[in-house]
Amino acid sequence: MIEWSGLGKRFGRRVLFAGLDGMLQPGKPLVVCGRNGSGKTTLLRILAGLSRPDAGTVVRTPAGLRISYASPDVDLYAELTGRENLDFLGSITGTSTAGITDLLARAGLTKASDRPVGQYSSGMRQRLKLAASVFCRPDVLLLDEPTLALDEDGISFVETILADHIATGGCVAIATNDRTEVERWADARLDLG
Amino acid sequence: MSKTGLKIALFVWMEAVIFGAFTFLPPVPGFRVPALAKIMVFHVPNAMSATVISLAAAFYAIRFLFRRNLLDDVKSAAGASIALLFWILTTVTGMVFAQVQWGQAWNWDPKQSAIFMLLLIYLAYFAIRAAFSDAQKRATAAAAWMVFAALTIPLLTYVLPNAPGMMSLHPKQVVFSVGGMGPQYRMIFWGATAGFMGIAVWMFRLHVRIDEMKLSGELAGLSGGL
Amino acid sequence: MADDPQSIDARTWFRAAAAVLVKEARVEGRSRLALGATVLFSVCALTAVAYTIGETHLDASVQAALLWVVLLFAAMSGLARPFVREEEMQTADYLRLYARPSAVLTGKLLFNAGVMLVIEVVTAPLFFIVMPSGMVRPDVGLLTAVLALGGLGLASTSTFVAAMIAQASAAGSRGALFFVVAFPALAPLLMASTHATFAAMAPVLSPPGYAANSMVVIASYDAIVIAAGYLLFGSVWSET
To answer: Looking at the complex, does the CB of residue A12 fall below 8 Å from at least one CB of chain C?
Structure first.
């Protein structure tokens, strides 16, 4: 679970948001919506522990919470193959690499798994990112624009991921411009304008 | 005493020190130009003031790394600029001395090399500050550099120049040894030390006040009121 | 599977550090030119020096200094890459999310140490071949030791400085910034390494205790820099 209060962030002179309070709970997906530039990505980054807020606090319980983050502005290694990327993430998190083949199959990436990610299409890359985000069995899943570049199959992959994760008691926050996603998944909603 | 009163007192004090240095101090035999010895009451107090402000800058840098409060970064950066100023003064007075005493302003002896590197370290500090636009990242990188440099500087300025086999032209052990300085020198010397230290601290506090105001102006938009 | 959480942690740490090292090597190996460029750079730097000096005989002390200048330039051209590339390719955040900072630093430090080793293995012998010999009954063992420890110092400081400046906004001038910041930090090491190299090239010509003193300085430099690097890396690496 993640709780935040009084969160504020600015870039230079521009204030992105201020005085945000909220909470992310297991089994209750939060959807963050807003126009481009409204701070959706920044908020998710703050919750992930990648960015520091200018004001306010974030409390993660328990302290060693495992958080995953998938976003257009974080990429996997283009020179490594899909399998090698997941292998690498497994090694640095201490996760067993036994489930990689399965996961790649579910993501529809079996044929591409031994090709460098640099050769993937944008849809394939997105699917790999999503696979990577659930691979280490995180407690919290933070997805920024998860359906970007995805076709129908890709979108149903997202849905199975979300369903599995929620069913096992994980927390989810999704940042998106896509209003239809909002209706489908939102248990709670945060509008950043 | 009011702030203005202190300011004037400091001014008068420094005037007295400078006047005394030039007229009151006797020339010292043993130097190539005996009157040259007087530069010591400028060179060494500058170095001492620079050291004190450098330590303050390093202290605030460490505090920033722990507490991530941008005010600490402001103080660290202010300290760095004042320290740099006084280190430059130290270098220049040292060069004047070297030119008169040995006919060569710069000779790459260990002490001079060390201070040259020190200046480069501070210049690198400001280069780092200039290269970051995000305030927290800038402060973090700058503070980390300051601490990193602070850990390796002693090696550079003390161990290396004083190592056996290292010949340095720099006069040794004048200030704190018995019989090192005559009574008039001692008086003017410590007077100059107090004066320069006072100026350094004053400049530091002014610098910090200005930067703090700039910073709170920028932060004002964040807490609640929009 | 061991039950003790502490030992699992240590094993994960080693696995993580090793994984980072392997990943660096793989990525570098599959990038076009990459490490080859750095080695070529050092050969060109060496050539620039040797060619312009030509037949002129130089003292061993001058040659020692030139060797370390060439090694310095080679380090500056290539050792920032592990950190700068992560930022440029936007892959750094995965490391921040999933790996312990000390493991990341270890992997990248070992990688850079390896790169430095390759640079030295290519450059040093070449240097002594093409420069008119200033050596007088050289102490090859000492020479190897200086290159090893001095190279480690070069790699360590470079790695840590690269970590510090990798997130700088002025992307175009990161290269210059790297050199500007690394150089003053490397100065004591360069000095001591040059002295020790001179002592190794011509033991009879150098003052007694010269070599031992310099090696002590180099060793303590390495220890201080590596310790300081590990202490400070965490703060520099992640924002929180």
So the answer is: no
